[in-house]
Write a structure and sequence with these properties.
Pathway: Nucleotide-sugar biosynthesis; UDP-N-acetyl-alpha-D-glucosamine biosynthesis; N-acetyl-alpha-D-glucosamine 1-phosphate from alpha-D-glucosamine 6-phosphate (route I): step 1/2. It is a peripheral membrane protein. By secondary structure, the protein is an alpha+beta fold. The protein has eight helices and five strands. The protein has a single domain, classed as Aminopeptidase. It starts with a helix and ends in a 14-residue tail after the last helix.
């Protein structure tokens, strides 16, 4: 049997520091919010992301290599919600270290996705709440999120407000 310490070595970040007990308690009892694990490709993480955007073919080796890189860098916080050993929701906080605002820190919220079979259970709100919890823990002065026009009302429910304009150039 794997100990808690061994399990934590396989997570992207330390659950005991960065996962809110209050947010966990707000989820249905069979759901667990936690950091991404090195073997979550086996729990449907990649398939879940494909409901959000183009993922492409990711081998187990490339998944684990990318996980190891993100863990080593220490500025990416990917959280998942698991139910019955299956990933049903996920979101990412990217931490940017700046010179502005006295060497401040900004959190970028990315890749928010709830499996289409799980929508309507407030999992998306819990994901955003959890990312804001992490952002405060790492001392971000703000979080930023880009979204489609159709998603604005959802994010406003999460206490985000529409500001500025996003410009994009794809390569």
């Amino acid at each position: 049997m794997m100990t808690i310490d061994e399990k934590d070595q396989k997570t992207l970040f330390d659950r005991s520091v960065y996962i809110s007990k209050e947010i966990q308690a707000a989820l249905p009892s069979s759901y667990l919010i936690r950091p991404l694990r090195r073997d979550d490709d086996e729990r449907g993480f990649v398939e879940l992301l494909s409901q959000l955007s183009i993922v492409g073919s990711i081998t187990q080796e490339s998944f684990r290599d990318r996980f190891d890189l993100l863990k080593q860098q220490g500025s990416t916080y990917i959280i998942v919600i698991e139910e019955d050993n299956k990933i049903v929701a996920s979101a990412t906080l990217l931490v940017e270290y700046k010179f502005l605002r006295k060497c401040g820190i900004v959190g970028h919220i990315e890749d928010v996705v709830v499996h289409d079979s799980q929508r309507g259970k407030k999992l998306g709100i819990r994901l955003i709440d959890q990312l804001h919890y992490i952002a405060q823990a790492v001392k971000c002065y703000k979080t930023i999120l880009n979204c489609n026009e159709k998603n604005i009302s959802f994010y406003e429910k999460c206490f985000l407000k529409k500001t500025d304009v996003q410009m994009t150039r794809y390569f």
